[in-house]
Amino acid sequence: MPNPRTTLLVANPTARSGKAKKFIDDAMTALAEAGLSPEFFATLPEGATVPALAERLEREDAARVVYMGGDGTFAEAAKAIILSRERAGIDVPLGMLPMGTANDQGRSFGILAGNKALRTNVDVIAAGIEQWLDVGRIEAMDDDGEVVRSDLWFDSCGLGLSAQILYRRNREREWVEHVPFLRRFYRDKVVYTSATLRTLLGNLVSRKTFSLDLSIDGQPSHYEGVTDVLVQGTILYAGDWIFAPEAKPDDGRFEVVVLRGHADWAAAAIGGHKRNPVTSDDLEVLGVPARTVPMGKTIEMVVHKPDELEDVRAQIDGEEFIACSRYRVENLFHHLRIIVPEDAQWI
After folding, report:
1. 26 and 45, same domain (yes or no)
2. How many domains does one find in the chain?
3. Which end of the chain is more exposed for a tag (fewer CB within 10 A), N or C?
4. Where are the alpha helices (DSSP H) in the chain?
5. Are 136 and 78 in contact (CB under 8 A)?
6. Domain containing 22: what range?
7. CATH code at 18?
């Protein structure tokens, strides 16, 4: 058989109220001009993308998959690659044409988002330099320890305030879709900003927290007054924060950030900003202790919430995940090949 040459471009043509179609056309042109033989693969609703794309890969004529879009499209493309490898032994790398807002995966490796960066990103794909990425598997369990849902994630997963913001954003997005005039303006960053401010203000007034039993590679610890738990795969969080500068995306470990209260959030936001000129010594002078971020391969979390607190929300890669009282997160070492710049550094 001839060597596979086809590049499968995976994107949602209805995204951004249909504006994505022009971006897709531009990407197909750029990929063709780079000699990458593009073929468009449209995402499908209700979780159908992953099995359909895996079946397409099993024809064995694709050299690579390239996702175009946000975190959700990255996850669908990556899961399809993993499924085709598990099912038929076919493994291809994943290239990135990010269009999302935070773009944690892309920025963590030096890849900018948007149509202006299209030609540069296509050049990166054409060069074909690969790097391993560790993948997370999360299992949500009931009180008896029975797994009720399992999924893969590639950037981060978390519990608490950040997941609650995501939940509120999605509910507001659903509501505004039924208001034709308003949905033209109240969308994207505006919706997310509104949900963030309302959730933070509400939590500031109510001061609702939960306690957490955390085990990292068998080492237990207990936390009171928790507002948020973040488990990081890539180095960047929300496009601008680095909580563990020494972390690597392919070292077999995930970083666990536990935040307690708004003061802790503020300290983390200041100390963890990627352009932050404030050193740990400066923070110590201000009475803010340096943050220690534990790392490990297997992370187990048990959530204890007060009766007056609603469900502690959960998220994976910026998408809602089932709310439970127990979770197990496992690092799947070197589980996905991604295409990166020659000097892959965060930006």
Report:
1. yes
2. 2
3. N
4. 20-33, 49-57, 71-88, 104-107, 118-127, 161-176, 188-206, 261-271, 280-285
5. no
6. 6-128
7. 3.40.50.10330
